[in-house]
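Hey all, sorry for the wall of text incoming. These are the two entities for the joint prediction.
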Amino acid sequence: MKSFHPLDKVRVVLSHPSHPGNIGATARAMKTMGLNSLYLVNPRVFPDKDAEARAAGAWDILNSARVCVDLDEALSGTVLAAAVTARPRDLSHEVFDARRGARELLGHARQYPVALVFGTEMSGLTTLEVSKCQIVVHIPANPDYSSLNLASAVQVMAYELRMGLPELELLPPVAGIAADFNDIELLYRHLERVSVSSGFLDPLEPKRLMQRMRRLFARARLEKEEVNILRGILSAVEKRIQSQITSYK
Amino acid sequence: MKSFHPLDKVRVVLSHPSHPGNIGATARAMKTMGLNSLYLVNPRVFPDKDAEARAAGAWDILNSARVCVDLDEALSGTVLAAAVTARPRDLSHEVFDARRGARELLGHARQYPVALVFGTEMSGLTTLEVSKCQIVVHIPANPDYSSLNLASAVQVMAYELRMGLPELELLPPVAGIAADFNDIELLYRHLERVSVSSGFLDPLEPKRLMQRMRRLFARARLEKEEVNILRGILSAVEKRIQSQITSYK
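and here's what came out:
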């Protein structure tokens, strides 16, 4: 990457977009506000003529768009991912409005890749997809008609990111080295394994344990060293439990 | 408590105040902004004539002040405690300026007790005291002369709390039931015990492990149910390790 402008570090991730026209319109919306990093998770049709037509000159963004097989691939390396959603959920993460969400993302984008994640046109993001994000961003809308077009939602968020730039200097620096998506996913797998081997979690009836843990650690914005410490404790515990199982044989 | 006004839920905690005059001036500063809950941790002299004189009519606050033996007692039952400090520290918690810190406290004070913690006049808060708080609040000041009087610091924070009241309706509600100081201290003790029994932590050379864990979970603003889950996992792990030790006998 040539420049270190915070907007360069913001990925716009469209999960399973159905209409190629929306992909083009998204590229255009991004370019108007200075964003350039587009990730497409399993798009129904891409590349496509409709996408090119609606991009109206933002072809550079369209041409450099990365097509991913799943959300994990699109979020790899990010330290903060925001699920943009219209409906608040039961066990949802921290909810920010568009303005405060943009500020939260920008604060991290000074140093690390971050992501704005948009769901499919008809049904939005799945619960599993939201659980891979650390925050939820809500675009305020008319409660009687809140159905924002996909590219319009991208436009509002891109606008708020641009508007937030002058405030960046006032934000406190991010302390420590942030853990990224991949580190944190490994932590969750490790925690789940120990929860099972200790007998706390029944893998046949996991309930919402891991969802709760994801929600907790999402709020904390984990640092690399913290993940290392937590995994160190888990490894020590695992070794003890393992040696016990062996001693029973 | 008769009323549920958020300012009623904000404790002003003075740790080891040396000058009784400052206690009186603090009571007065609090009353001017509508605060009324004063906690004194091990004051050098109290009650005292100087305190009464400087309180200038805020005697109700002085008379109902609670004298505590240590900071744990003063923070008992709170869900968020802010260490007001002039110096940023090495492994410090999240740092807020006075305005944003007041907002953070008010958001929780709609439902739960919170605390503003001020250190002793000469040397401020100790590292141990700061580690019992979840956030650090910094009052911006002239870098060439940042020595705010204790009661003046209380005045600025009380003012910001009052100024933040109209914004309260815009803040998102606090999700879940917040864990309080006592729950969280028990979690730390449990985590430390398992870190030792698993062999991860050498109690003779603890380094900064628990300080790091305090910092992590402070940022997360733990909920009661999350503490219960974490302690459940720790208990399950502990039982396994214990039965292993027994099986070796």
